[in-house]
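Notes from hallway chat w/ T.B., transcribed later so I don't forget. T.B. wanted the structure written out for a chain they're using in a teaching module, and asked if we could keep both sequence and structure tokens in one place. Agreed to drop them here.
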Amino acid sequence: MFLTSRVFRWAGPLAVTLLAAVLRLWNLGAPHSLVFDETFYVKDAWTLFNLGYESTWPEGADALFAAGQTDVFLSDPSFVVHPPLGKWLIALGMAFGGTEHSWSWRIATALIGVLAVVLVMLIAQRLFRSTVLAVIAGFLFAIDGNAIVMSRVALLDNSVMFFTLLGFGAVLLDRDWHANRLTLRLTQARDAGRDPGWGPTLWWRPWLLAAGLAFGLACSVKWSGIYFLAAFGVYLIVVDALARRRAGLPFWLSAAVLKQAPATFLLIVPVSVATYLVSWTGWFVTQGGYYRDWATTPGAAWTGTLAWVPDTVQSFWHYQMAAYTYHVGLSTPHPYQANPLTWLFMTRPTSMYYRGSSLGENGCDVTTCSEAISGIANPLIWWAATAALVYLGYRLARYREWQVGLILMGLVAGYLPWLMYLNRTVFQFYTIAFEPYLLLGLTFVLGLLLPRARWVVVGFLVAAALISAYFYPLWTGIQTPFPFWQLHIWLPSWR
């Protein structure tokens, strides 16, 4: 069969990659205006590129920026609460394509979205040992509306998703690396007549260094990356404990917690911290950044036992504390905020952009027209993945499958921490950080159905593709008749 042929092994993933690229790159410059939080991140990215820090802009700067007047920024620093890396990536796109082109504001985010689809397929191949399931996982991610929208607007969350997915992949690769070397070390000890006792401490685990780097990059885009660092740090301890128990070590739990866990910590956390600090290089090497000279103001510097700390470090720490205070206290009402308890049901997707027109305006050739960028995931994919999540919980409890446990840990890292912030102003599009794991879970369930109900799986994929085609205009700002837009409002809260 073609699906098991050598040709499909490269043709299938290539076709999905090309599909993802077309859906994300086609007409990327529309609309030629800053949409939603692009008003912050695009302008911040440009001042970061020019000054080394984010500065303020005059009133009406969005219209000026869209008109090509991108040099009107001021030198006064702006208080920004997200680290610089995501904005540096946006800035690279503008440096390449020119700020006069709106596609260049978004090209870095779009390319990251395409690479994420490729990465999902690579991870699925490793998880399931099946090219068919890898292609299904990539296809679902390629055509989903949440993933498409977040790849076509210059926000930070797509970068968080990509770097945490890289970290997830590194943890996945470390699993076999760790198991093989633990077995080898124990075999060598037993063959030499030695009691392995607690077992060895494994220091050379390159994939953990890679995971630390990836999670550090995620934290350098948004602080929410630290949830993945913490969750997978715990996961690695649990995996090590279970591996030692399977190997017959009597003190497997204490060995995992007291012996291997400190080494794992030193392999991951210092790399993550160093990566985060490097991302702030622009702030450190310039003098204009926000709070850059805070410690030199009268009465501000630390005293006592911490008085020796350099002023720059004191100022940096003060800035981080100010950003933290802002994050935990953010509760400004927004018409499109969505309580995390509702995210899996997608009751309040984010409207990124909307413009209505009457006959003759902006090319509208009917009575009324709409142009929208709505963060509505493909409803069939999203709700099916939510249902699959419930089954995965049962599956893990019943069969203890490690693939299911790893997928669910991605969901734990990306979703559960937000339940601590039910009163914060948060949005549905934050779900992009854990969407890959939702789709991997859905793919796992489809893989169980495939041998017995192949045509059900095929029908599901065809229906998902048709629904994506139906919603695509609302994901990309294509002008449509207003009644067409109304037909896509399946729930009253989607307005």
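Follow-up for T.B.: The chain has a mean pLDDT of 95. Might be a good example for the class.
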